[in-house]
Amino acid sequence: MNATKPLRLGLIGAGRMGSFHGRTTALHVPGACLAAIADPTPGQAARLAQELEVAKVYSDPQQLLDDPDIDGVLIGAPSALHCELVVGAARAGKGIFCEKPMSWSMEEIDRAIAAAKAAGVILQCGFNRRFAKSFRAAHEAVAAGRIGTPQSLRSLTRDPAFGNPAGFRKWGIFLETLIHDFDTLNYLNPGARATEVHVMADALIAPRYKDRGLLDTAVVSIRYDNGAIAVAEASFQAVYGYDVRAEVFGSAGMLSMGSIAQSDLLSYGSDGIRADTQRMDTDLLRDAYIAELNHFAHCLRSGETPRATGEDARAALAIACTCIESVEQGKAIQL
Prior knowledge:
alpha/beta, six-stranded parallel β-sheet, 10 helices, 15 strands, globular
């Protein structure tokens, strides 16, 4: 790929997350431009294209994939469509950035990974915590042996507000939310493989939706083949703000990362000490979202293997799918 020519990226999906990726590409990825947007929802792609001054608008994602001027695609469409879009992009010879989860089934994700490999194209999954500075530094510290042998790990995601429970898909807490934590735990325990999963989960925030299979609170225990024991925790309603944190405890020390605070500003008053918190993932992890798309652009140019590969997405999905088995059978399940 010509190193001096601007990368021309196409966005598929102009909803909340897709639009954020589109704006990030247009404003914060030097050497790349957002050249096309595709979304079947009437008017959605056109509105974003007008805001970002993007010339090409498609109602059919296949039209974007067929566009010979597009070097790579950003897939921000609903997760149920991810696998087919990855396969289609690979067949079109486009480099691929796909939001998580790449798929909801092991068979589908294997097909997506195989398609990218057969086409020889870059495939990066949107695990943004790998690009947050503290999480990246922790990974490097563990890999360098600075805390000895990892013995216990923890990762949590707490969303600030539940919204409409009826709009959430069954098993979403594992496949959409905790998928980030499963990847984080794998990332913070480099070289280790998850071997056993045990889940305790319930509908504590919206109990009347439990009969529909909607779980809103979960704690997952994971055993790794290097002996480490990990816990992943999720809740769909943390009234104090969006909460993403992690910890690695080892034989020679501990690493802690993540913060809910909007900044390091503390307000001291008669009612005590107060810190403002973030309410959106795109605010709390803004720098990580920007970094992951710059990394994608770098990999497109250099051919370097992305920091969050299809295989990484598969490893996290394997844990998520095993969580479902654990809930259904009410016991620990071997991977």
